[in-house]
Amino acid sequence: MPLTTSSVFPPESHVFSKFASRRSVVHSTKGIVSCSQPLAAKCGIEVLEAGGNCADAAVAVAAGLNMTEPCSTGIGGDMFCLFYDAKTKKVSAMNGSGRSGNKCTLETIRGSLGLKDGESGKIPMDSVHAVSVPGAAAGWVDTVERFGSGKVTMEQILAPAIELGEKGFPVAEGVAYWWDASEAQIRTASPNGSELLKKDASAKDGARAPKAGEIMKNPALAQTFRTLATEGKAGFYSGRIATELVKVIQDLGGHLELDDLAHHLATGTEPVDPISLKFRGQNVQELLKDSVSTSSTDLGLELWEHPPNGQGIVALMALGIIQELEAQGKIPTFTPADFNTAPYLHAVIEALRISFADGTWFVADPNETVVPTSSLISQPYLASRAALFDATKASDVVTHGSPALQSSDTVYFAASDSSGNAISFINSNYGGFGSCIVPRGCGFTLQNRAANFSLEAGHANVLAPRKRPYHTIIPALVTNLHDGSLHSVYGVMGGFMQPQGHVQVLLGQVVGRLSPQQALDAPRICIGPGGSQGKGDKTVHVEEGMPLETVEGLKALGHQVEVVADMERAMFGRGQIIRWSVDPVEGVGVWSAGCDPRSDGAAYPL
């Protein structure tokens, strides 16, 4: 949205971050890749040009991002994806998250952390005990096998990323900033940290974080990719890579074993049923009578998310609560003029607070714990939770409800192809470089996802052997209610910001009538850590560029507003959108994409 003289610009902000993006929407009839690194996007485009489909391209992008943006993602982390099949109009989901080790009992880990009986605590993000089994390697292979074209091999898919690692690549500006910020931890977390640093004889210990525009090579990671390409999943979860992974963990006092990797190899990536919520679809037949002036968005949408152990259900709940608030007359049906006003954002903030109170209590591994997924997104339950909303003030402590039980760093990217298929894909180390622990000769860091387990006995997300933790990473996909056609694939990366970004970016298109690029450009809000976990914190972080009247309006409602500028804007996430439409005259399908200006990347057409 355009910035005005009343927009908030903290004086310490760098010039490049003061202005709204001037990017145009990228269009193509053949396919698009949208991601946070141009060189990684090129990896996906090369695979599309070779005859692969969007799923093949997505894995190429995931590998390319591991090489060019290791401060966010990698093969040592986890992945999830949603795939839209244009022929069948079916949405499918794949859970590529790893589990805790078989010896990682609550008692063992609490003891290793020095926690006494009755003493609360968390697994530190930089602890070896935060490392869970990486699921990405298996997820990449299984994505290609289940959704791929069958026309390209894993060798072809991983070849562009391998070339980046062996020949080197210039480091992007944002990546260089975060690489430098993590250098000290990379050096100390494990004996092999130099593999993730640039060789420089003049630097301390002969290596340092690369600077923007400098060439970085990672031949060790390239070799890891070659092994995965030629030997498949077994090449990662057994043999040299697995041995080095377990050795560095155990040398540092961790409890993962080769058996844990073998278990993941045997169980593989889990195909799961996506979950969804229908939004504003009550008047479809009436609207269809005026199809000339009515867009598919007017006819209602269905938002698809990955089920728990991911937090996508939080986005569905928040959207559902907003819809219930409209139905109950507690808020108006918002129009473009309301977008990013104080009353509009108040409703979004409160819906998210209520949803997080439930999500952080109930979201867990459904294979180990009964998660009331269907009840949490049912209309009666959402209506009851909407009753907590007060249009005149910010809420105090929000606690989880009691639904009926029934039987922060990441990369998000999207890809589409000429057949009308699209994939929503997310891959993560969790916090930055994850644990910063590097298996010798492998060129990647291990995630710290197990830090998200609860160490509270009786909690749904409590740590247990071979259990998946609450996962922040979530891909999203939207279909049109009237015919099941694809509306868009999209996502917003960034820890607990992700469901908040999903709601804001989708409503930007639905309420604000924004294009994909405008929806990503618009300033966002992020509720504070306490509020996001249902503890009553009224802090609302507001991105620079939000109108001053909105900021003052939120303060008047009792929100504790903090305006965030410069590189700290990373807390608002980095998103991608690829939207589908059909030219009404030519009858030709068109992909239209946007890429978040908070990232180094862009959308690239085939």
Describe the structure.
The chain has 606 residues and is α+β, with helices and mostly antiparallel strands. It has two domains: 15-26 and 272-409 and 470-605, Gamma-glutamyltranspeptidase, large (L) subunit, C-terminal domain (Serum Albumin, Chain A, Domain 1, Orthogonal Bundle); 39-79 and 95-268 and 421-452, no CATH class. Helix content is 34%, strand content 17%. α12 crosses α13 (342-362) and α13 crosses α19 (548-556). The longest helix is centred in the middle third of the chain and has 21 residues, at 342-362.
Mind sketching the topology for me?
Blueprint: E1 26-28, E2 32-35, H1 38-49, H2 54-68, E3 78-85, E4 90-96, H3 106-112, H4 136-147, H5 154-167, E5 169-170, H6 173-189, E6 198-199, E7 207-208, E8 215-216, H7 219-231, H8 234-237, H9 239-251, H10 258-267, E9 270-272, E10 275-279, H11 284-288, E11 301-305, H12 312-327, H13 342-362, H14 373-376, H15 379-386, E12 409-416, E13 422-430, E14 476-480, E15 486-493, H16 497-510, H17 516-521, E16 525-527, H18 529-532, E17 539-543, H19 548-556, E18 560-564, E19 574-582, E20 589-595, E21 602-605
Parallel strand pairs: 17-18
Antiparallel strand pairs: 1-20, 2-12, 2-21, 3-4, 3-13, 4-9, 5-8, 6-7, 10-11, 11-14, 12-13, 14-15, 15-19, 16-17, 19-20
